[in-house]
Design goal:
The protein folds into two domains: 83 residues, Roll (Urease, subunit C, domain 1), CATH 2.30.40.10; 319 residues, TIM Barrel (Alpha-Beta Barrel). The longest helix is centred in the middle third of the chain and has 18 residues. The strands form four sheets. Strands 1, 2, 3, 4, 5, 16, 19, 20 and 21 form a nine-stranded mixed beta sheet that branches. It has an eight-stranded parallel beta sheet with strand order 6-9-10-11-12-13-14-15. A two-stranded antiparallel sheet has the order 7-8. By secondary structure, it is an alpha/beta fold. Helix 7 runs parallel beside helix 8. The radius of gyration is 21 Å and the shape is globular. 31% of the residues lie in helices and 23% in strands. The chain binds N-(aminocarbonyl)-beta-alanine and zinc ion (3 copies). The site of one zinc ion (ZN) has 3 residues, from helix 7.
């Protein structure tokens, strides 16, 4: 079914202009003013609204066995929440346990998503151990279009890998032309500091941040950058949380290391004082929420394009799961749910109430992730020939975030009560309307696995 989106202000990473967009067979087939279209074409009036390319979340966890439990979304719930929030493509971290074969992990993760997601999706392939099977599978997956890997320098004894595995992964990535994303915290320092704090009787969620301080993340970032430098591989630091680590990444960039930087919504907006509340466990993620003073540096770097992308690190656990670490902060499942809220939060506190330009907003939340991860210009663009993944955004909407109205499969929101200055009014996935008036009206299971 063709579709016309009329009179919206189209916003791309480069410019803004008012025009109509005509969609046929899942793609954009013309853009212009006063387009002639067949009589009876379904039409969406976007006057006074923005039309953005569908947003891409480059960092989510949907299926995740982690810290003795599982993250709570399914691809059905996670994708519908994503769409209501304006995200039309997400990249999930495929993270097999260190004792699981990568091929088995691939089968598990793709099996969970197939026929379930309402939006398009793809994977960063997690390298959680190194052996012949891993190398063979990575070569096969890269040849099949899975053009990004993921490594964890943190999580000793779980997803974390040692330096030999890191070096081999990066050398292979360089050979294959694959980008490697990395969680950068020094695992051994975290393990030692956790034990020290616990032995001093410091067991509450407020000790999570001191167990992995800013310098531990800065060290992890420097460590990754050095390995990138030695191998010539292309790297991407995920969820960079603080000014010190930012400085390290920017210095590496300045000396020619091919390194990109991701920020995630929680670090721009929430700070570690929240972990002192009675419900402090709900605000535990890694790297941790930091002192508020870091946020100005993150926003400035985002505005200037030094932080390349903004994801969520969506990782939903419910209150019962969070309570698993009541008496020991090292047992709190790490993660904050945010897939539904990223676009509205970054629009409200970045564009509407801050210094983030609309173009940089679109770039960081859509175009740049598409470019870095091989999806552009199929995704991340409003161009003839691009997939018709579009967000008609109403900047006149006023509302609040609440767990009660959320589509994510959890029972709390870290952003409960936060005001929002806009929302996706209509969202299309490859030409089909998936959200109307802020409600999911799409086709469950229509999402495709994107090969890049
Ligand atoms: O706390 C977090 N970030 N949980 C998800 C796993 C990860 O490190 O991204
Ligand atoms: Zn991580
Ligand atoms: Zn190091
Ligand atoms: Zn993550």
């Amino acid at each position: 079914m063709p579709l016309l989106i009329q009179n919206g202000t189209i916003v791309t990473a480069e410019r803004q202009y008012v025009a109509d967009i005509y969609i046929e067979d899942e793609t954009i087939t013309s853009i212009g003013t006063h387009l002639e279209v067949p009589e009876g074409t379904p039409t969406i009036d976007a006057s006074g609204k923005y039309v953005f390319p569908g947003f891409i979340d480059p960092h989510v966890h949907i299926h995740l066995p982690f810290m003795g439990t599982f993250a709570k979304d399914t691809h059905a719930t996670g994708s519908q929440a994503a769409l209501v929030g304006g995200t039309t493509t997400y990249i999930e971290m495929l993270a097999p346990g260190g004792s699981e074969k990568l091929k088995d992990g691939w089968n598990t993760w793709t099996g969970m998503a197939a026929g379930q997601s309402a939006c398009d999706y793809t994977f960063h392939i997690g390298v959680t151990r190194w052996d012949d099977e891993t190398e063979t599978t990575l070569r096969e997956l890269a040849a099949g279009g899975m053009k990004s890997f993921k490594v964890f320098l943190a999580y000793k004894g779980a997803f974390g890998i040692d330096d030999a595995a890191l070096y081999k992964t990066l050398a292979l990535a360089k050979e294959l032309g694959v980008i490697v994303t990395a969680h950068c915290e020094n695992a051994e320092l975290v393990a030692q500091l956790q034990q020290k704090l616990l032995s001093e009787g410091k067991t509450g969620p407020e000790w999570h941040e001191p167990s992995r301080p800013e310098s531990v993340e800065a060290e992890g970032t420097a460590h990754f950058a050095t390995f990138l430098e030695m191998t010539g591989a292309k790297g991407y630091v995920v969820h960079l949380s603080n000014a010190q680590a930012l400085q390290v990444a920017l210095e590496a960039k300045a000396r020619g290391v091919d390194i990109s930087i991701e920020g995630v919504a929680p670090h721009f907006l929430l700070d570690c004082s929240l972990t002192e509340r009675p419900d402090g466990a709900n605000f535990v993620m890694s790297p941790p929420l930091r002192e508020k003073s870091n946020q100005a540096a993150l926003w400035k770097a985002l505005e200037d394009g030094q932080i390349d992308t903004v994801g969520t690190d969506h990782c939903p656990f419910d209150l019962k799961q969070k309570a698993m670490g009541q008496d020991n902060f090292t047992l709190i499942p790490n993660g904050i749910p945010a897939i539904e809220d990223r676009v509205n939060l970054m629009y409200t506190y970045g564009v509407s109430r801050g210094g983030l330009s609309l173009s940089r907003f679109v770039d960081a939340l859509s175009t740049k992730p598409a470019q870095l991860f091989g999806l552009y210009p199929r995704k991340g663009a409003v161009e003839v020939g691009s997939d018709a993944d579009l967000v008609v955004y109403d900047p006149g909407h006023r509302g609040h975030i609440s767990a009660a109205s959320s589509h994510m499969n959890t029972d709390y929101s870290a952003f409960e009560g936060w005001e929002i200055d806009g929302r996706p009014e209509v969202v299309t996935v490859r030409g089909q309307v998936a959200v109307q008036g802020g409600q999911f009206v799409g086709e469950p299971g229509r999402g495709q696995l994107l090969r890049r």
